[in-house]
Input
Amino acid sequence: MSATETQLVKYFAKKSKLSAAKFPIGIGDDMAQIKLRKKDSVLITTDMLLDGTHFDTKKTTLEKIGYKSMAASLSDCAAMATIPLAAVVSVALPRNFGAKNLKKLHAGIISAAKKYNCPLIGGDMTSWNKPLAGSTSSLLAVSVSMLSTPGKTKPVRRSTAKVGDVICVTGNLGGSLVKKHLEFQPRIKEALAIARAGANSMMDISDGLSTDLNHICRLSKKGAILDAAKIPVSKDAKTLQNALNDGEDFELLFTIPFKSFERLKKNWKFKTRLTAIGKIIKGDSVKIKMQNDKICDLLPGGYDHLRKTK
Output
């Protein structure tokens, strides 16, 4: 049996010998944190997006691909309630991609960079010398590495949910492949407000609510119970299962004490929807109460990069 993505991340973390004093946050969160001086630190993330997996160059404009590549890393900054600082981008270009197409891709990257005040300060470009085996062409890959700094609070981690916390999400979930995965808005300002309100744990929903909530519970060593009737299903999602498992929503999933959530709702100034969908409980089981009141296990059903495809 091949290892899952989660199993391999756990393996890498176990093998890591990083100094906790120098690297307060290491493998397993949306960003890693590097201590610089007594009170200063910087956080870093990297994401690689691939043609055929994260976008389709036959159906999507290069501007949208560039935007998504940058926005995915900006969403990692939001996931930990940090402020984007700067980014570098590396690209692996198809054969004969050309300067005109590269400028279109660059325009999309810059559009996200300017919108969220995260300048592109460098990068690298290379191209395939030969086509892929059995093909006459090669594929596009875009890798973004981004730095951020903490806001007025410490970075919010995945591993710090507490019993009694309300489980919340921003926006609507599911059906992202219709269009949202190419034009989503990283929830940076919302995340900073959520952190200031007292969130205990947070991440962005990239692999699907079912998978990402299981990440929070596993790392926090807690359980959870969701209420299916309260999950905000998007208009593009066909079923509740889409909202649970589609992924690439890039909304925020966070846990927060009930009283803090009530204050957050009262002071919420954003158009983005804010919904409480469940509760953190003792134990290690993640459950969901269906609309017929039946309680079922909520197994990770979202995206796994190492899952075999048929």
